[in-house]
Specification:
With 317 residues, this protein is an alpha/beta fold. 35% of the residues lie in helices and 15% in strands. It is built from 10 helices and 12 strands. The strands form 4 sheets. A 4-stranded parallel sheet has the order 3-4-5-6, with no helix packed on it. Strands 7-8-9 form a 3-stranded parallel sheet, with helices on both faces. A 3-stranded parallel sheet has the order 10-11-12.
Length: 317
């Protein structure tokens, strides 16, 4: 099977790419209205699909790619990377009988009757996250410092449990008005005080270093996240996860095998008590099990093989 990658010109991939636009739109601060550029991308993709005589098109762009249904006659599959927003998008997917790939079964819950052709979990390059059996004396949280990611809750839990917490991640920019205001009001003054340490944005070797040396990854998230890649990266390093049972968490974390999945209650005290109990019992989780779980379920190789099966199944009818 031969692949062509129709991506932005600034994409970093280890193979030949075909640029559909010079730079990713979200990077270019000069562009205020993305709509005409998305339209241009769709036209370019349509022309390239015909020129290359593609048999199948795999989309990761979202609703904009639905415009290709009026231009291409080949099968199109769509990987859903974000939650469904309202009923309109669901209606259009259903109207077109779009071939959808979910990234967790939890992601399907708002629209269980759409045409899902597969569920394929995201995979990582496991070699980028070396295993460590003997952690240091701190816990870690990684993500955007926004309300839905549970940054306020993890700080409160850490203080109540009297543990050292390292925080890594992006501070929401002013353009994300609500998230930015939340950070300024509730989070900023709590960083780098007592046992709470903010590490800034982390990536590459620095990120993997802090993952593998942590006792556990704490993730009291506050929304139905379709897939939490940070949990997979942590477990690959041997670091177990303690998280609320929201979104994909029960699928990604093996309860009492690679961490603890905590049932969220309406009462905050009950949530915190259960979380702290898990922290106190984290030594019961074998770090080797965390690594093996990721090797079995969440590698880029496994993800690629599963997508390849989807392609052949659709092409063969």
């Amino acid at each position: 099977m031969k692949f062509f990658f129709l991506v932005t010109g600034d994409s970093k991939v280890s193979c030949k790419l075909i640029p559909i636009i010079e730079k990713a739109l979200w990077v270019n601060k000069k562009i205020k209205d993305h709509a005409p550029y998305y339209a241009l991308e769709m036209i370019t993709i349509s022309k390239m699909a015909e020129k290359l005589k593609l048999d199948i098109l795999h989309d990761h762009l979202g609703p904009w790619s639905l415009t290709l249904y009026g231009q291409l006659k080949i099968p199109i599959i769509h990987t859903l990377h974000v939650p469904f927003k309202g009923k309109d998008r669901i209606w259009v997917y259903k109207k077109l009988n779009a071939k959808l790939v979910s990234i967790s079964f939890a992601q399907r819950k708002p629209a269980p009757n759409l045409n899902y052709v597969a569920n394929v979990y995201n995979g990582i390059d496991i070699s980028s996250f070396p295993f460590n059996k003997k952690p240091k004396n701190y816990f870690i949280w990684v993500g955007e410092l926004s309300q839905r990611k549970g940054i306020l809750e993890v700080i409160q839990i850490a203080k109540k449990a009297k543990i050292t917490l390292y925080i890594g991640g992006r501070i929401p920019p002013p353009q994300q008005r609500e998230d930015h205001q939340f950070f300024k009001k509730f989070i900023e003054k709590k960083l780098n005080k007592g046992k709470i340490r903010y590490l800034g944005e982390l990536s590459g070797k620095k990120l993997s270093f802090y993952y593998r040396n942590a006792i556990a990854f704490l993730y009291p998230l506050q929304w139905e996240e379709p897939f939490g890649l940070t949990m997979v990266e942590s477990m690959a390093s041997g670091t177990p996860v303690i998280a609320f049972a929201r979104g994909s968490v029960p699928e990604v974390v093996k309860d009492r095998g690679t961490g603890f999945v905590i049932k969220p209650y309406k009462k905050r005290k009950q949530n915190f008590d259960d979380f702290i109990s898990a922290i106190e019992n984290i030594s019961a989780i074998k770090r080797e099990n965390c690594r093996e779980w990721v090797e079995k379920n969440f590698t880029k190789e496994k993800m690629a093989k599963e997508y390849e099966r989807v392609y052949y199944r659709i092409l063969n009818g």
